[in-house]
């Protein structure tokens, strides 16, 4: 059973996951929801006002996501946490039959789309959006990161903690907790006309600008990163990679998505916003270089952090000043 008739071999991701971007992926939840909106014929760009209020949270950047209330307001898409009281595969079968989808927290060890990164190499939490289930042939179709994929066989058994899956016990191990699952209901999906959608988007732009960081997050980001380098050095790649993901990568991805959103807004709301879009894009590109600079720093090399952080701090001010002058706060 499946909700959409999709083939991984011919699936084309949304432009937000294009290979030409500095950050072609953001985080698993945001990425799979971008692709869901894309498949539904809804505009993933319209749902992006929330990126304007992301912040440096003291040790990591806000994971960019579509606020659930924004998805409901713009598209009628309902997403809510599910209580899991039986095997996930049984819940999935029931909801696919009703035309619903599930987001499910899984172990990336069993996801073939992560070959060379985590597949069969490293256990790690990630999220997928499940939309096709073939129990008889042990196949699963799912959105993950920037695309649509399928897995089968032993990976199928393992992803659902079924007996027979790789490294799975014969009975349910009580130490294996049920995953976090969300129910995605498509019953009330709306495709509003462009003018109605833009009005709703502008309301959310003003709302999220009102929630923007009270102080420049790039300044706070610099202070924390500089203080973290010393303890990162002896820990090696095992600490560097997740640290870089939570800091440089999310900062860059946030701002590149913001640039794309402001481009979209500029085209539909009379222009005059290119200065903000370019400033966000400058932050995204600088954060990409910063990740490599951080890698050198934790290996004991002398690096220049003042220049990239100065660029990012100034650009953030420009972007926010431009948007607030236009839309208020």
Over all CA atoms, what is the radius of gyration?
21 Å
Total count of strands: 6
The amount of helix comes to 40-55%
Give the domain tally: 2
Which word captures the global form? Answer: globular
Strand residue percentage:
5-15%
Largest sheet, in brief, is: 6 strands, antiparallel
Structural class call reads: alpha+beta
H-E string? HHEHEEEEHEHHHHH
- The strands making up the biggest β-sheet line up spatially as 1-6-2-3-4-5
Counted by DSSP, the helix tally is 9
End-to-end CA span: 46 Å
Unreliable segments (pLDDT under 50, ≥5 consecutive)?
A: 165-170
Mean pLDDT: 93
Please sum up the structure shown.
It is built from nine helices and six strands. It has 329 residues and is α+β, with helices and mostly antiparallel strands.
3D structure, described in words:
The chain has 329 residues and is α+β, with helices and mostly antiparallel strands. The protein has two domains: 15-41 and 78-185, no CATH class; 213-327. It is 45% helix and 12% strand. It has nine helices and six strands. It has helices at 28-39, 68-75, 88-97, 154-159, 194-210, 217-232, 237-268, 274-298, 306-327; strands spanning 78-81, 101-107, 125-134, 139-144, 147-152, 181-185. Strands 1-6-2-3-4-5 form a six-stranded antiparallel sheet. β4 (139-144) and β5 (147-152) form a beta hairpin. α7 (237-268) runs antiparallel to α8 (274-298) and α8 (274-298) runs antiparallel to α9 (306-327). It is globular and about 60 Å long.
């Amino acid at each position: 059973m499946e909700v959409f008739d999709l083939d991984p071999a011919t699936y084309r991701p949304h432009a937000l996951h294009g290979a030409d971007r500095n950050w072609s992926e953001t985080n698993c939840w945001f990425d799979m929801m971008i692709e869901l909106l894309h498949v539904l014929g809804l505009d993933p760009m319209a749902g992006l006002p929330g990126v304007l209020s992301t912040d440096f949270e003291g040790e990591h950047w806000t994971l960019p996501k579509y606020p659930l209330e924004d998805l409901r307001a713009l598209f009628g898409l309902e997403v809510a946490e599910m209580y899991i009281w039986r095997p996930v595969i049984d819940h999935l079968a029931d909801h696919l039959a009703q035309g619903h989808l599930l987001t499910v927290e899984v172990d990336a060890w069993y996801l073939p789309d992560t070959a060379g990164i985590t597949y069969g190499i490293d256990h790690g939490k990630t999220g997928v959006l499940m939309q096709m289930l073939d129990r008889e042939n042990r196949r699963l179709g799912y959105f993950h990161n920037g695309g649509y994929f399928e897995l089968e066989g032993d990976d199928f058994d393992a992803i659902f903690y079924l007996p027979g899956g790789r490294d799975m016990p014969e009975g349910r191990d009580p130490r294996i907790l049920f995953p976090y699952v969300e129910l995605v209901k498509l019953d009330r999906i709306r495709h509003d006309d462009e003018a109605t959608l833009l009005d709703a988007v502008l309301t959310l732009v003003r709302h999220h600008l009102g929630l923007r960081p009270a102080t420049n997050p790039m300044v706070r980001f610099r202070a924390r990163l500089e203080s973290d380098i010393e303890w990162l050095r002896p820990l090696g790649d095992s600490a560097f990679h997740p640290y870089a993901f939570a800091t440089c990568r999310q900062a860059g991805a946030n701002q590149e998505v913001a640039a794309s959103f402001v481009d979209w807004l500029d085209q539909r709301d009379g222009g005059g916003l290119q200065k903000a879009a370019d400033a966000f894009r400058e932050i995204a590109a600088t954060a990409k270089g910063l990740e490599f600079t951080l890698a050198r720093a934790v290996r004991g090399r002398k690096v220049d952090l003042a220049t990239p952080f100065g660029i990012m701090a100034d650009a953030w001010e420009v972007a926010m000043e431009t948007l607030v002058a236009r839309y208020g706060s």
